[in-house]
Design a protein that fits this description.
heterodimer; A: alpha/beta; Rossmann fold; seven-stranded parallel β-sheet; 18 helices; Glycosyltransferase (chain A); glycosyltransferase (chain A); transferase (chain A); Glyco_trans_4-like_N (chain A)
Chain lengths: 452, 144
């Protein structure tokens, strides 16, 4: 990340950001790098930052944690852990009723109806009242200049809504995903007139700005809310620090292909395995090569059924699973690889965060995802990108073989050039202009209020 | 600690790596439908839920679609229920549960067997959780 120029300012003039992120470190869940980087970037730019987040225990007892990430949160940031209770995060089996143990999926559906009473969001809706109280308490103790909510969960937008309604404080909505749009299928999830649709319309109506992670998601929302589209911005993900350069020399005795990321049910690991098996029958180099998979097996810390089925075939195909990797270790993990596997769920709105980090390695990348994914837009001009036209095993096998040849041929100079090309994806290049604009807006508001 | 892991698929290697049990003080029992993928320092109890050829075919047919799988989950053919049924009659497992300090369901199909095992056979002070993260946290707390 480009380090923003620190803005030394007396405490009374520093703007105060209330940042709402349920999944703040030590969470290791999806989107946590963005929340971590955003809070740190505001602090580095001279803001007082208060974060409203779920308690540590929520993560230690469910999704797991990344303490290395927590240790790199700017020490000036105040973190308020807001009590959070949801049946979905109850891991103590002694507290489970028989009906839940017997039919967990059905029980979850019925339970979610109760949780949606106060806010229309499964699992997280019940957090609304605790968030409202926490936001009001923070503002009472240290007046807030701006609220930034990071969704999902979308209940994170509530503090901005409350402080805007009561005190006119501006708020920004940061969509890491989308609320009404299924980014995989492209379908609208909530019909017009539904509680979700009404909430989103009202929130967007009053927002100072709305951030989206890519252009296709922004355009979808601009079509839905054309009168507010001028407030929409793409604030793409990016990489936080470049992975360590490596002097590793690919060997024609066998290569290492790597995947780093969460393997959720949407990630087509089965397609990758099918393509990889076929490639090994076609290419002696691939037959001597290996695949290393690094990351969590699903978001909730429980392996999804699809990956559990695939794992029994890993050993015979030269595939090894290495478990989760802490943020501080990610750079070192990339030095083990000769080429990378970008395996993503299908959807033209899907970018993923790891595509930027992949690009920053300078290594050849095989895209095992629908060619229409937004991730393709990121890599289109990359020097060593091997996309597939479809997810048939034969197509994937061809791409793997091409990438293997490219990895063997890649010179250190070519890799350095690829790394230089990817510097455009540093996260700071996305965040810093937005933060500067918000700083100006807050200063202008303060001057206007002082003049009254 | 005496730790009992319910892992129907038998894919327990990664979980054990994360739990990092101490062979000198921890005794691990893995309860699965097939031979576990990690055996060093592990006591395996392999359960074979009885299933007639006809019901096995019906279960396979239902498992081919999302709607079918949901229907299957609510029926007696649900893999979790069948695994639990097999666990109920295993004397060795009951003995292990009676000495357990920590019982963990690592997969969805292991939940019911673990839940019933806790109620029927485990000491009242034994902890019982779903998921590797909770198990790691409890294990770390017990060692502190």
């Amino acid at each position: 990340m480009i380090a923003p120029t620190p803005t030394p300012a007396p405490a009374e003039t520093r703007p105060h950001l209330l940042y709402v992120a349920w999944g703040f470190p030590p969470s290791r869940g999806g989107g946590v790098y963005r929340t971590w980087a955003t809070a740190n970037a505001f602090a580095a730019a001279g803001w007082d930052v208060t974060v409203l987040a779920a308690p540590r225990e929520t993560f230690t007892m469910s999704t797991g944690i990344d303490e290395s990430l927590e240790r790199t949160v700017d020490p000036s940031i105040e973190i308020v852990r807001v009590p959070f209770h949801s049946a979905a995060f109850e891991s103590d089996l002694r507290r489970w009723p028989r009906s839940r143990a017997t039919a967990p999926e059905l029980w979850n559906v019925l339970s979610s109806r109760r949780e949606r009473k106060s806010f229309p969001e499964r699992t997280y809706g019940g957090w609304r009242s605790a968030l409202e109280s926490a936001a009001l308490e923070v503002h009472d103790g240290h007046p807030v200049d701006l609220v930034l909510g990071s969704a999902n969960p979308h209940v994170d937008f509530i503090p901005g809504h409350v402080l805007h309604e009561r005190f006119g404080i501006p708020y920004v909505m940061d969509y890491r995903d989308a609320w009404q749009l299924d980014v995989f299928s492209g379908a609208r999830l909530s019909p017009e007139g539904s509680a979700v649709a009404r909430w989103e319309r009202e929130l967007i109506e009053n927002a100072h700005a709305v951030w989206f992670v890519n252009e296709p998601i922004l355009r979808w929302h601009a079509d839905l809310y054309p009168a507010r589209a001028d407030r929409f911005h793409v604030v793409a993900n990016g990489y936080d620090s470049p992975p360590e350069p490596t002097d590793r020399m690919p060997s024609d005795q066998g290569l290492v292909f790597g995947y780093v990321g969460t393997m959720s049910a949407a990630v087509p690991v089965d397609r990758l395995v099918a393509g990889w098996r076929l490639a090994r029958t076609r290419s002696p180099l691939l037959a001597a090569s290996r695949v290393e998979l690094w990351g969590h097996l699903n978001h909730a810390g429980i392996p999804n059924e699809a990956i559990a089925r695939q794992m029994s075939t890993f050993a015979e195909n030269g595939i090894t699973y290495h478990g989760a990797v802490a943020k501080k270790e990610v750079g070192a993990v990339y030095t083990r690889f000769d080429a990378l596997l970008l395996v993503l769920g299908t959807g033209r709105y899907v970018t993923s965060g790891k595509v930027y980090e992949y690009a920053a390695t300078g290594l050849p990348i095989v895209s095992v995802h629908d060619p229409g994914n937004a991730a393709s837009d990121v890599l289109r001009d990359a020097a060593a990108w091997y996309p597939v036209a479809d997810l048939e095993p034969s197509t994937i096998a061809d791409a793997l073989i091409d990438a293997a040849d490219a990895a063997l041929d890649q010179t250190p100079e070519a890799r350095a050039t690829a790394r230089e090309w990817a510097t455009q994806f540093q996260r700071g290049r996305q965040l810093d202009p937005q933060i500067a604009a918000l700083h100006t807006m807050v200063d202008d508001r303060r001057r206007t209020e002082a003049a009254r | 600690m005496n730790i009992v892991l319910f892992v129907p698929s038998g894919a327990v290697d990664s979980a054990l790596e994360q739990l990092a049990p101490d062979p000198a003080i921890d005794r691990i029992t893995v309860v699965s439908r097939s031979v576990p993928d990690a055996r060093d320092g592990v006591h395996a109890i392999v359960l074979k839920p009885a299933l007639s050829a006809l019901t096995a075919r019906a279960a396979r047919a239902l498992g081919g679609s999302a709607a079918g799988r949901n229907l299957l989950r609510l029926s007696p053919l649900d893999p979790g229920r069948r695994f639990s049924g097999a666990a109920r009659h295993d004397r060795e497992l009951r003995a292990r549960l009676a000495e357990a300090d920590l019982i963990v369901a690592l997969e969805r199909d292991g939940i019911l067997a673990a839940w019933k095992g806790v109620r029927r056979s485990a000491p009242v002070e034994a902890k019982a959780v779903y998921g590797i993260a909770a198990a790691r946290t409890l294990l770390a707390a017990a060692r502190d």
